[in-house]
């Protein structure tokens, strides 16, 4: 069985990010920049005042100096003349500093009367002047390719005079749940049936990764139904299946998809939950076969589908970040499968995180999954661990997944 890291590497190996599309800047939150975005101008565009007051020549300003007020430079209406010796121009925050001036005398440090401005506290040369281009210069990269645009990036790109930005097209991810027992949530459920939790849960995961989920109708446990429902998959960027991945007589996802050209890259990995994970391709479309147990489907979704979708979406750092915590309870020795234990988080007196595994780790228990704040990662063959020892975790409380 493959290790988690080998499986991740093979899944990501030949994924190609989607191509670019232009979107209005105001709609670009969370989208991934498809190219470097360059400043189209200097910011500030010229030397400007950072305070309300008077543009002066610092050398003219001593306590009680009297300057002659020769004009005004409101923001957006630059003063066209020069500030000559002994002269000053009224100025405001964001106004262009007129030629000749080299400092701003803030109005709290001056007294104006009948076109005469008396200095009370002189400014230093250069004081309260924001220099042209001190924020960014024309031609400078303001948003690098591969960055998920934040509100701050959008503000920056707007200041750099962009109305449209090139971003990666959202990857289309088809989701196919399988199983005769699966019913649409809200529908009457036949004896032995179960509501389909995987499809809406995986659709939400796809959205959280920046993709567009396409929820296919659930397939019956026959190869022909699985093949029928996955037809047309060539228009998607990724196919996620859930269920039918294991070894039972009715676990037919591979055989069904082989009818429409699936070639399997690997099947089964050393991980709990998630042992029967499958990876392959139908034509150019990558396929991830997730286990049907909903916890296994979601954990494999986080560990494998999330980085795959993020890579397709153009992210340059596709994996979920890992954190360190200390164990809130003892853990037994691990077997050969990497374990992802559902856990709660609390804070130690020193502020550090404490991760405490739930006593029940059944991969069908969605309520525990929904209440989990972290996954404790236990490597294969880990020795028994004591409360207080360090452990690696994936935080779920900071994700909206
Ligand atoms: N003899 C063995 N049996 C099993 C093994 C094994 O190695 N040898 N592996 C186990 C592991 S690990 C997992 S995980 C499951 C995965 O099985 P499948 O992927 O084939 O999933 P199903 O059998 O179709 O379903 C499992 C379970 O999950 C429920 N399910 C399925 N789809 C949904 C859905 N969309 N929404 C809600 N619940 C769903 C299904 O009813 C079953 O209860 O295999 C073990 N068996
Ligand atoms: O390892 Mo299976 O993925 O839950 O029970």
TrEMBL record:
Pathway: Cofactor biosynthesis; molybdopterin biosynthesis
Cofactor dependence: Mg(2+)
GO biological process, one term: Mo-molybdopterin cofactor biosynthetic process
EC nos: 2.10.1.1
Gene3D superfamilies, sorted: MoaB/Mog-like domain (3.40.980.10), MoeA, C-terminal, domain IV (2.40.340.10), Molybdopterin biosynthesis moea protein, domain 2 (3.90.105.10), Molybdopterin biosynthesis moea protein, domain 3 (2.170.190.11)
Catalytic activity field: adenylyl-molybdopterin + molybdate = Mo-molybdopterin + AMP + H(+)
Cellular component terms (Gene Ontology): cytosol
Family note: Belongs to the MoeA family.
Classification via PANTHER family: GEPHYRIN (PTHR10192:SF5), MOLYBDOPTERIN BIOSYNTHESIS PROTEIN (PTHR10192)
Protein name: Molybdopterin molybdenumtransferase
Organism encoding this protein: Gluconacetobacter liquefaciens
Phylogenetic placement of the source organism: Bacteria, Pseudomonadati, Pseudomonadota, Alphaproteobacteria, Acetobacterales
